Amino acid sequence: MSKIIAVAIEKGGVGKTTTALNIGAGLHLLKKSVLLVDLDQQGHLSRWLGYQPDGKPTVSELIYQEVSGIRSNDDSLFIRHSDREDIDYIPANKMLGGIYAVLGNDGQSNTVLDRIFHRDFFSQYDYILFDCPTAVDNLLVSNALKCSDKLLLPVQAEKFAYDCIPQMLQRYMAIKQTQDVKPYLAGMLVTMYSRQTKMSNEVFAALQESYGSLVFSEPVPMLQEARNSTDDDNALCGSLVHRKSSRVGQAYLAAAKRIAGDKK
Ligand SMILES: Nc1ncnc2c1ncn2[C@@H]1O[C@H](COP(=O)(O)OP(=O)(O)OP(=O)(O)O)[C@@H](O)[C@H]1O
Ligand SMILES: [Mg+2]
């Protein structure tokens, strides 16, 4: 059985995609088989993985086929392999913007991803990670939360990001129909942390006070190397976990180790 993790938080530009990529690459480095799923029509994750439009079906068609009931029996048609990261993925592109009307047509519109990713084919992966779009009330994100075993929250080290956590957890608890969210959390990973700034330290301390051990002990520093890694015109583009000299990469690798060690 795969463990399915949604990387999500209702705030944009906080490092969701960087986190999905580096945690996926970190788990791969730990010898786990990983499938990354791009659920954002911006397609940033796909681009970092080296995706070039190839005329083959993307995550949009995967969803469309499940809702329409007219589907190929071969889920491998949707899988690409990133040579750069040596990881399988399912790409997204701007067509995904039209998927909300499709999802809305399903009798159980919250369970479409749940039905897809619990098919036998996907059980070959140890981990399936969803890179979610930023959204407040978004059917695709609800689907990802419903389907996932765990939620990984990248929390930018600034106050607005911290403030949006309670609402996000409430929503997740409603979807999971539970009063106790803890078993469903992979954790909160502080991103874009600057040791020198008061704001970063205050947010990290407040998070630890409110959420204790759910907070990863090693925050991801705010560094230019992370920006370079997401610039697909740059030769340094790609995950950072392989680079021993990368502080961002080592923080992500530490987080991946904790996730891999979580047996629940
Ligand atoms: N630790 C970091 N230090 C510096 N820059 C970072 C760090 N992590 C991410 N970034 C940069 O911040 C920007 C936003 O990151 P990313 O795309 O991962 O966020 P996101 O939450 O997925 O954004 P969106 O809401 O658009 O999906 C990118 O340019 C990325 O390179
Ligand atoms: Mg993103």
Automatic annotation (TrEMBL):
Transmembrane segments: none annotated. SUPFAM superfamilies: P-loop containing nucleoside triphosphate hydrolases (SSF52540). InterPro entries: AAA_dom, DNA_Partitioning_ATPase, P-loop_NTPase. Residues 2-178 form the AAA domain. This is ParA family protein. It comes from Caproicibacterium amylolyticum. The lineage of its organism: Bacteria, Bacillati, Bacillota, Clostridia, Eubacteriales.
